[in-house]
Amino acid sequence: MRELHGCPPLQYSNRLAKNAQSYAEYLAKRNLFNHSECKNYGENLIVRKGAEGILLTGHFTQLIWKATEKVGFGFARSKDKRSAYIVAHYYPPGNYEKDYKKNVPPLERGRVYKPTNMDLSK
């Protein structure tokens, strides 16, 4: 996705993953869906509730934010196993309105992502 917008790939960060995992466990234990108050990194949250639940997602722009270099993920289930929490932490953080134009480039002309059956089965 980032490549389609001319953004370099992200590096996986164990430190960000550890923080994201801790926060996913915190949310799952308390059955919450709130962003953390930490401003040192960007954050996307997803929760899936029940078999027929809804999917809540964070911001696409953080995922492709050009200045962001690292990402880490955490996953936890609620005590009753009916909710799953996914937390993504990004560094440096993005989604600053004043920097949007230089960090969220448009799709590169002629570039279209067409998922293969293999992509869809992952």
Automatic annotation (TrEMBL):
PROSITE patterns to which the protein is assigned, alphabetical: CRISP_1 (PS01009)
SUPFAM superfamilies: PR-1-like
Residue ranges annotated for the SCP domain, each copy included: 1-98
Gene Ontology, cellular component aspect: extracellular region
Organism expressing this protein natively: Schistocephalus solidus
Domain of life of the organism encoding this protein: Eukaryota
Signal peptide: none
Gene3D superfamilies, alphabetized: CAP (3.40.33.10)
Protein name: SCP domain-containing protein
